[in-house]
Amino acid sequence: MIAKRCQQVQPFYVMDLLAKAKQLQASGRDIIHLEVGEPDFTTPQPIIDAGISALKEGKTHYTAALGLLELRQAVAARYQQTDQLSINAKRVVITPGSSSALHLLMHALVNPGDGVMLTDPGYPCNKHFVTLVGGEVLPINLSAADGFQLNVEQLDEAWKPNAKVLLIASPANPTGTVLSQDRLKQIVLWAKAKSIRLIVDEIYLGLHYDVDAVTALALSDEIIVVNSFSKYFSMTGWRLGWMVVPEGEVEYFDRLAQNLYLCAPTPSQYAALAAFSDDTLAILELRRDTFQRRRDVLLPALKDIGFGVATPPQGAFYIYAESSQFAADSFKWCHALLEQAGVAITPGRDFSSQSAERYVRFAYTTDESRLLEAVDRIHSYQRSR
Amino acid sequence: MIAKRCQQVQPFYVMDLLAKAKQLQASGRDIIHLEVGEPDFTTPQPIIDAGISALKEGKTHYTAALGLLELRQAVAARYQQTDQLSINAKRVVITPGSSSALHLLMHALVNPGDGVMLTDPGYPCNKHFVTLVGGEVLPINLSAADGFQLNVEQLDEAWKPNAKVLLIASPANPTGTVLSQDRLKQIVLWAKAKSIRLIVDEIYLGLHYDVDAVTALALSDEIIVVNSFSKYFSMTGWRLGWMVVPEGEVEYFDRLAQNLYLCAPTPSQYAALAAFSDDTLAILELRRDTFQRRRDVLLPALKDIGFGVATPPQGAFYIYAESSQFAADSFKWCHALLEQAGVAITPGRDFSSQSAERYVRFAYTTDESRLLEAVDRIHSYQRSR
């Protein structure tokens, strides 16, 4: 009785692992969690305080479907601040998380049979957003040797005549790859030449290291950018994100939003008004530095014990590491690692078809000492086999 | 470049009216708002306080996709309290509003080409939830003379061989109709005999007058019930609802939820833990009484000046009234009424194909004196034409 499209939707494989990890913890085991894509930090206090104030003032009714005008203006102003970009606040659509944004976009842009180009590896839900609306996933195979950067040759190779949408992410999950400005420009031009809609997932923007990363909005008014308050702003549970869309299409997104979810959570929207304040940004920049330090500790430690990471990841809070040196099947190995060593990491199967069994993802969402202990445990486990 | 399915999605027509009403207000006009389907009450203080406490405690991370276990248990316990029903908490799925629940259900249950039976009049988004997943709307024409009750003859008439799902609501929007227990039983049996999945939208349950209204869950474990914290609990902006589904299908909804929205807003979930407390319920019952008094004031006043309401509505906070005595086209008439008399009501076009032009919906979400003033203004406007 369950629809076919729904039977094809796979669970996040990491969820089974997470459930097992919680069981082990309940039985008294010490588990190091490096599997979940969520900052370990609580939301910064100024944002929490703004949420509390909104609740005290009784801000509990619906907002407009496109979001609070003040928040849309604040997001637009943020682009001025970070990228000296003048974005009309009308183009900003507040969404209940970026999941809803991506899902809404597929409804809005993809006819049944249309091709949607997605990177492999990539965010696991994207392929489901495509198939749920009857689209066809056109995978773009990225290369570890190239630091999982995306190039025009790969796009040409993945392209098929039904291609309508190209969805990319920078910084990317699970690789942490930040697209270089040069690559991004080439991709924008390629998409324009092919009349393909380009969506850029920038939900990890702000969490980038060593390199400058700027919004793709700087390159074109025709692309769609998806962003979120979850990652850089540590607001996961509030379910709040945004899109910037071409001005002429706002009305369609408005209608879809009215139907699909009415509006983003009101207390979250008021709380997020404090997300761009100096106080908040000072906290967030310290957290960014912390993530960078963790990466700088974890990456060499992983390489020391034999993981393959061809190019240092420059963003997000992930390291996508080749584990085939340790086991042929990373899925089984992750389960063994959890049970035997008490370390939870995510198998490649959640992110990839091509590299599923040879890779694992580490989320450095715990402190440095625990990261190093995790590496020690993995090392000991491997030596004991 | 916008997908066909999306171009078919109509806006809520009332939104244009609402925009115009706000313009008029901004220019200094006094507008009486009877158009929006939202309680005028702020969320009860115990729920707000629970939300504030959760924020103070830093409850800002993701929850499980199915929702906080404590909240699922609290919802299950509520069925014990109101209906002496023992519902396994595993069957309770917490959702970001009932919109997301209905949308998710259509993804889960409807294959392209499947028929979904919907009442006309009914909630405007339902037809879009169906067409967005490629389903076919099979309208069931309700009769004002029968108080917009649904009967088996109407179901037989509307049925087609591709029918897979029947979605009904009680109390219903826009009619306020509460299905009698007898009718509900017949509908459950009819759906079972036809092997059709029955979804019962109970988001206005609790807001019913004169009659007892009980959950359809009492009649079958195979149906799906959708509910919400928005209406009876006055929590619209928090975006929180729930479903009760057959136990064997929970895993599918879990996967879809993981992909479509990850989880419902965390602060909202913690706040809702206070929704079933004695303090909160005492406030909510007073509000229910207030709605009943408003209905009892508004209904005779509308009939006095010539609106047609064959049967008193027994639930929700709506009166769906025949306006053909005043104008052939209720859409144009609502706009004229707003401009000339400063009264905002919703034209039938949002809810119906068959009765679109002959009906309007009044939401009694403002106090009694304003309700009576609205009726006076309509009366004066009609006499002046």
Walkthrough of the structure:
- Two copies of one chain form a homodimer.
- By secondary structure, chain A is an alpha/beta fold.
- Chain A folds into two domains: 4-42 and 279-384, Aspartate Aminotransferase, domain 1 (Alpha-Beta Complex), CATH 3.90.1150.10; 45-276, Aspartate Aminotransferase, domain 2 (3-Layer(aba) Sandwich), CATH 3.40.640.
- Helices cover 42% and strands 14% of the residues of chain A.
- In chain A, strand 3 (115-120), helix 6 (124-132) and strand 4 form a beta-alpha-beta unit.
- The radius of gyration of chain A is 21 Å and the shape is globular.
- At the A-B interface, helix 1, helix 3, helix 5, helix 6 and helix 9 of A face helix 1, helix 3, helix 5, helix 6 and helix 9 of B.
The level of helicity of chain A is 40-55%
Question: What's the end-to-end separation of chain A, in Å?
Answer: 46 Å
Whole-number total of structural domains of chain A: 2
Fourth-tier CATH superfamily name of the largest domain in chain A: Type I PLP-dependent aspartate aminotransferase-like (Major domain)
What is the 3D form of chain A?
globular
Structure classification of chain A: alpha/beta
Number of strands of chain A: 12
**Alpha-carbon Rg of chain A, integer:** 21 Å
User: Please, what is the oligomeric state?
Assistant: homodimer
Mean pLDDT of chain A: 95
